[in-house]
DNA sequence: AATGAATGAGGCTTCATTCAT
DNA sequence: AATGAATGAAGCCTCATTCAT
């Protein structure tokens, strides 16, 4: 019923158009007709590739998170240093969003415009990324570089919240500066906190 | 044109109704008619107190943040201990949202469903709270309890992001546990970070 | 939620417009916009008086059958003669539809354009009319004027089917002749059948 | 432009698929795509055999009525007994629809979902069957078994209406009982009417 | 100040039909 | 003959906002 998704240029075109249009106008100000026009297809064509409008949102997130998770799974494998791992974690995330303000805008801002039903799906999609964060934390504790006193969930929220907030601030102020240049300081704060005798050089 | 707002019970009723209805159904599933019915007024009456639907959103945030800022302004005045100040910062925020899931749902989730124009206003409203965060950080640095290496903006985002993420997770999972009980650990992570030799007991 | 229905001229206007538009164009070629325009109201207004498009269909039928049933309930009360009763049965039905081709077209033709869900409701609405037919048949059998050999359901279908078919033919050929003038012959055939030694004068 | 229809298995396949899909889902819930899938052909292929969707509807009816008329033409030829002829008339009709609920559903219910243009064509198609009914009536009158007082058109409508109503009731209640078993009583009522001194045993 | 009936623009989605392959 | 991806018109319905009372 739904046309072949992968390896199809129209599928990609619609997804890219959606990222752009939603990123700039917001989910609820992005009519299908606008997305279709941006993608260069007819309105009806969108429904050959996506079940409905929500499906577009979900698909974008899936692709974005999927990319990040795949890269991290690969890069973190066999990496022992927890601090280096954390840095990779942040870097991959920042790189993915920091080089594409539309995607960042989409992920950080408009994705929030979802109903309860969708948030459930979103939660499922993001879970693998959370799992990776958790494993980095665990790695750090095992190496006795991160304190064992840490509450896993709260620590994870600190890490994710700090990145989230940083990227959101960046994109909402116009993505004018280089997001990647903030990585050292972001990691520094994460590791050392406010009291901060971190091992940063 | 707009009726006297302050000290008007209908103004309050509409605001409370909006928090409840939007908090539970979401901004885009919260027709004015529903809010009006919940508030016990006619649809048209809403427009005697608010310019439009967005104005309701903004007003709720203004009241909520206003309450928090007012309390903090008062409580932090004359408080020297930066760590105690940070704890107040978190506590007041958590108390305000943690005792009212509708407000939390509204602030953490549905408020995000806004367009560019609104986000500008939202930014303005939140600014005073950011200022307070900044002053607590500055206080800690001055007392040489927080490391001077801190980048102010990033640190602020770490603090805000951690709280934000924690409350969002709490409210999205159904507000089933006691949010306030997390305060010590949240502060702990903020102060000590991952490496964590914090001064928490 | 739905505005006061009875005694409301807009409710009547929409219903009449719907009968006219649907009667002429068919249910599936009668957009709400056309009905609204015919009724002299805005599209949205229709939804203040009816839950949805199907509700309009149901309501028309309810009103039409209701009128017929009410008249028959009254007229047949205390009437002993089964043949006279049958004649009233046919007459009231023919009068109601025969003086209003749009209603006839609606009832005989377009009402059939319904889905399973609606047909259930339609069945419920028509039931009282069937009950009246049944009681006339029973009356005739009790008076030994109708043969007791009759199968109730099949007889009812003969009566209803004959009227239905006659009116449908009349309306589909343009309602050019006087439907009421057929009443004697219709009753005659019903009473005497093909073999026909009926008691008609 | 239109492919050779007769003796083409795809033509038959589409027609059968259409009967099934429309019979179960209704004309307006039976997209061409669904019919095509059921028939095992591509959407576009349907248009090689049928001018448009309406043409499918018309064709089904033509085939169905054609079958009935062909059988009756053959069977009634040389049959003198009007009552036996009537019985054949009813039996063939009931057999054709009674052994195939999808066809019955199609003919009795969904075929009604047509516009003015189509009804004209439908009328043309059914005409031969009406002619047969008329000839049976004439045969009965000539044999002085049916009363000569009969109005031809109204009598025909009684016969057709009774069958129509009976089959519709049968199919709409789920085709749960044996339609054919009703034939005697249906004929009985047709012949004797309500007063009923029919010659049925 | 308050009401709530009325408006009408706009969005999502379906689907009959076409046409390049 | 056959395919099925693509089209785009059209329809139902929602809801923010207005305005006569």
User: What is the distance, rounded to the nearest whole angstrom, between the alpha carbons of the first and last residues of chain A?
Assistant: 56 Å
Q: Describe the sheet with the most strands of chain A.
A: none
Unreliable stretches of chain A, pLDDT < 50, 5 or more residues? Answer: none
Number of domains of chain A: 2
CATH topology of the largest domain in chain A: Tetracycline Repressor, domain 2
The structural class of chain A is mainly alpha
Please identify the top-level CATH class of the largest domain in chain A: Mainly Alpha
- Which two protein chains have the largest interface (Cβ within 8 Å of the partner's Cβ), and how many residues from each? C-D, 51 and 50 residues
Helical proportion of chain A, percent range: 55-70%
Supply the CATH superfamily name of the largest domain in chain A. Answer: Tetracycline Repressor, domain 2
State the oligomer.
Answer: homotetramer
Molecular shape of chain A = elongated
CATH-defined architecture of the largest domain in chain A: Orthogonal Bundle
Keywords (chains A, B, C, D): DNA-binding
Protein name (chains A, B, C, D): TetR family transcriptional regulator
GO molecular function, one term (chains A, B, C, D): DNA-binding transcription factor activity
Pfam families (chains A, B, C, D): TetR_C_4 (PF08359), TetR_N (PF00440)
